[in-house]
């Protein structure tokens, strides 16, 4: 059974940093692209960042570019999201997601999702 499990959320001050992890289980994830999404209270879920499994090519939402870094460890089936210079508007539940290649992360819904981890940034 394929599973994604996030960890690393918590409380941070504005300007601070957090690192999220997503552990993937299930042999199929080794060839899946992985992504992070977030959903703030009262708002729709939005794409944050993605990374291709084969090339390591990354994509970021404009709102986080230059502050967040997505990376993955294929040997350990784990994807990370390093979040620096956090802002109160980054407060949201962050979700890890996985799907096959050539996903339109902005407009399509990935097949697999984690349960989410809360990130709260205080001003």
What report would you give on this structure?
The chain has 123 residues and is mainly β. It has no helices and 11 strands. The strands form 2 sheets. Strands 2, 4, 5, 6, 9, 10 and 11 form a 7-stranded mixed beta sheet that branches. It has a 4-stranded antiparallel beta sheet with strand order 1-3-8-7, with no helix packed on it. β5 and β6 form a beta hairpin. The radius of gyration is 13 Å and the shape is globular. The mean pLDDT is 93.
Q: Which spans of ≥5 residues are poorly predicted at pLDDT below 50?
A: none
Number of helices: 0
Structural class: mainly beta
SSE string, helix = H, strand = E? Answer: EEEEEEEEEEE
Radius of gyration: 13 Å
**SS strand fraction:** over 45%
Quick check: average pLDDT? 93
Count of extended strands: 11
Helix content: under 10%
Shape field: globular
Terminus-to-terminus distance = 40 Å
Largest sheet: 7 strands, mixed
Task: Walk me through the topology.
Layout: E1 3-7, E2 10-13, E3 18-25, E4 33-39, E5 46-51, E6 58-60, E7 68-73, E8 78-83, E9 92-99, E10 112-113, E11 117-122
Parallel strand pairs: 2-11
Antiparallel strand pairs: 1-3, 3-8, 4-5, 4-9, 5-6, 7-8, 9-10, 9-11
Q: Short description, anyone?
A:
The protein has strands at residues 3-7, 10-13, 18-25, 33-39, 46-51, 58-60, 68-73, 78-83, 92-99, 112-113, 117-122.
């Amino acid at each position: 059974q394929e599973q994604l499990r996030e960890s690393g959320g918590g409380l941070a001050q504005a300007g601070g940093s957090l690192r999220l992890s997503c552990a993937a289980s299930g042999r199929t994830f080794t060839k899946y692209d992985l992504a992070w999404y977030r959903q703030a209270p009262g708002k729709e879920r939005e794409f944050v960042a993605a990374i291709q499994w084969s090339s390591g090519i990354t994509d970021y939402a404009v709102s986080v570019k230059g502050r967040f870094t997505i990376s993955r460890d294929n040997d350990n089936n784990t994807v990370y999201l390093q979040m620096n210079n956090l802002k109160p508007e980054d407060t949201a539940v962050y979700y890890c997601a996985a799907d096959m290649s050539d996903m339109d992360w902005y407009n399509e819904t990935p097949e697999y999702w984690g349960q989410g981890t809360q990130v709260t940034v205080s001003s």
